[in-house]
Design a protein that fits this description.
Two copies of one chain form a homodimer. By secondary structure, the first copy, chain A, is an alpha+beta fold. Chain A has two domains: about 100 residues, 2-Layer Sandwich (Alpha-Beta Plaits); about 140 residues, 2-Layer Sandwich (Alpha-Beta Plaits). Helices cover about 25% and strands about 30% of the residues of chain A. In chain A, strands 1, 2, 3, 4, 5, 6, 7, 8, 9 and 10 form a ten-stranded mixed sheet that branches. In chain A, helix 3 packs antiparallel against helix 4 and helix 3 packs parallel to helix 5. At the A-B interface, strand 4 of A face strand 4 of B.
């Protein structure tokens, strides 16, 4: 029995998220398990590092699966890409220790939120970004980001549906990169609560628009009241960039 | 009666090209005429500067239409975008001289061809680029591009379906910009034969791969035999960037 991890990129537009659904809607995991089962001739259960939501993308999702197959690891990427639809791409495959687990072995994950900041929308980036027509203050957004970085109770930045036992997370970095008309928020943390990145992005957009102050963001972190932070911005701006082990 | 021109961007993925079709397949022109007729309350015929093919995109297509409506020109962009689907965006509207014609008044057009040059395909750029996994010699491609620039008989670079009376065109520039893994070919000419940019791009890819030499490209230009130039590369890499008047 071998344990294999594969780095995957996907355009989430046409999927109901990463995770297999009980109601049989198309998901990335379902596609991967189907083609890996076909490829290895053994039923495959492909666990993912992050359960991205419907419409969320990935440049560096990581999955692992255990298999009796002796397919050479160097052949896996090519063989997968021959079978995968064009919106899912296998990038790298490695044989790993038997106890490696894509989700639980992860030390940190890096997500990027893409804001298209222009008066007019874009015909091209609409499926890969969130259109914000208002002027944004980069300076204020960076100030607020400074309060978010660090180990905090992120109750104010979790969706009500979140089932996590603790809401303490360590945000290792939160970078704001401006390449007009694009704005990229890159968040790395040891773990994320449900919708946490999208609520952080929504809060920073509100700060940029002047609807809330950086000081208030510091207060949200301290108070832990979900209602106070900004809105949950749409899924298509979000991309899982990297999982670190 | 007024004559109005509008600059348009569109993602061509879901359209059967720009031009209205007799068989009622969805086209960009059809959508524009429908919403402009709705907006101005008069039947609109929206002529385009370039008849982009199915799957080809535009950042700067220009249309013009004549209308009895007295809608203020400053309201047109917003009013159009409220009615347009997300994959078509109006960018600018101007009132122009009555004899202005989007196609015939154009002095030159600028097209860009996007090559995704990487061993693995991209899950994101697949609808907006052409994937070339082989290594490409930029130096040789630039040398060949030098032979294409200028006024020549482009018979070797026209599709057999082309109906143009003369195949003499003036290529004003052909720039090759490398931003790995992306490669952008930008071609400006006073006019284009049917599939000319896609055949130029296909020829340059063959030069980059070493399948034909820059010297042979010079020969294609001189000989005027279509069979000798490179293949017609796929439509999704092509984008009409700008029309100059």
């Amino acid at each position: 029995m071998r344990n294999i991890n594969v780095t995957i990129a996907y355009d989430g537009t046409n999927y109901h998220g990463f995770q297999r659904q009980t109601d049989n809607l198309p998901t990335v995991q379902q596609v991967l398990e189907k083609i890996l089962t076909d490829l290895t001739k053994y039923p495959v259960c492909a666990l993912g590092a992050g359960r991205t939501d419907a419409g969320v993308h990935a440049e560096g999702q990581v999955i692992n699966f255990r298999t009796e197959s002796n397919i050479p690891v160097g052949r896996i990427v090519l063989a997968m890409n021959q079978r995968l639809p064009e919106d899912i791409v296998a990038k790298k495959a490695e044989e790993v220790e038997f106890d490696f687990h894509a989700q639980f072995s992860a030390k940190s994950k890096v997500y990027r939120y893409h804001i298209f900041n222009s008066r007019l929308p874009s015909a091209f980036d609409r499926l890969y970004s969130y259109h914000v027509p208002q002027k944004l203050s980069l300076e204020k957004m960076k100030e607020a980001a400074g309060y978010i970085v660090g180990e905090h109770d992120f109750t104010a930045f979790r969706a009500s549906a979140s089932k996590a036992k603790t809401s303490i997370r360590n945000v290792l970095r939160l970078d704001i990169e401006s390449k007009p008309p694009h704005l990229f928020l890159t968040v790395e943390a040891d773990g994320f609560l449900y919708n946490m990145v999208r609520i952080i992005a929504g809060t920073l957009v509100y700060v940029g628009r002047g609807k809330i102050t950086p000081e208030e963001v510091r207060h949200f972190i301290e108070s832990g009241q979900r209602e106070e932070a900004g809105p949950t911005v749409p899924p298509q701006g979000l991309c899982l960039m990297e999982v670190k082990y």
